[in-house]
Amino acid sequence: MRYKLPVLPFLLAGCVLSSCQDHQLTAPIQPTVTTLVRGLVGPIGVETDASGRVFVSEQGTGNNDGRVSEIAPDGTIRPVVTGLYSFRRPDNELDATDHLLAADGMLYILNAKGLYTISLASINAGNASVAASSLTPENIQQFVIDYNFAQDTGESHLYNMTLGPDGALYFADAAANAVIRRSKTGQLSVVTAVPGIPNPTPVGPPVIQSVPTGITYDSRQFAMSTLLGFPFPAGKAMIYRMDLGGNTTVFQQTFNSLVDIENDGIGNYLVLEFGTFGAQGFTPKTGRLLRAKGSSSDVILDNLNMPTDLKVADNHTAYLLSMGDGTLSKITF
Q: According to the UniProt entry, where is the signal peptide (predicted)?
């Protein structure tokens, strides 16, 4: 099953936010929310590097017009990589660019053509943008497609990624429903397949695929967010934990169509719900940002309209991306 997000606008509501990985945020009831950028075309991933620079990926319109841009503090957009593969399929969904990762001095870019890599040191105001045609993507997808899974979808969609403790990259594949490992020297392996769930509704297949959409590491274990396939039953999407051996356990199953996950710094997780699924598809303004605690969740932001990515940059700053509005918002505490 190929996983793509519909394009719809979003709304932010002020609340308490606490953070990810190496950061721990304490926010006032009403943090300052500023829209930094408007007019992004299909934005789906936001990332910051060690110096605090902000990067955003755009899927484009389907005419090989995807790009990755650096966003200046004043909201100025400076394209970094242009002309990334972007193709609109007959079902009107895009094969294009997904998430970003800044690690080990490199900016990693996931695209339907493969994994692009560009040196962070080469990205500066004095350099022109790089044409994607001058870069050679690493075709990890073919390895996944050729792999003989027990429940084989015959597809690959490398959607998100994180850096593991061994210096390897770990990918959430949202079409093969698996976690893929790429070693520091480029060797590929399948870490685990993400299990589906019995369909709790009378509509659709007997087993619903559990699509991994986000992956993070907290110095002890991985965690994955998932989005269930059709009919997208409410309250059934899961957070999985995974050890280095690929063994998975369910941390919590109470969510609606998760699209991102971050560590909160105290053993729990920040997760983004894309929204609830209704008769007309995903219902606008039903997305939420939650702190998942295992047996319960705190609502941090609600009334979000199809949010796609959250990035906590430091103890005082986070960024939230909307694919539908084409906006990047900065949240300051």
A: 1-20
Q: Which residues contact 152 (CB under 8 A, 6 or more apart)?
A: none
Whole-number Å distance between alpha carbons of 111 and 325: 21
The position carrying tokens 């990205």 is 123
Instruction: Tell me the chain's radius of gyration from C-alpha atoms.
Output: 18
pTM exceeding the 0.85 threshold for the entire prediction: yes
Contacts of 43 (CB under 8 A, 6+ apart): 56, 57, 58, 59, 308, 321, 322, 323, 326, 327, 328
Topology of domain 32-332, CATH:
Neuraminidase (2.120.10)
* Chain segment 148-170, per-residue pLDDT in tens: 998 899 999 999 999 999 999 99
| Boundaries of every domain in the chain | 32-332
- C-alpha atoms less than 13 angstroms from C-alpha of 295 in its C-beta half-sphere: 0
Give the 3-state secondary structure of residue 277.
strand
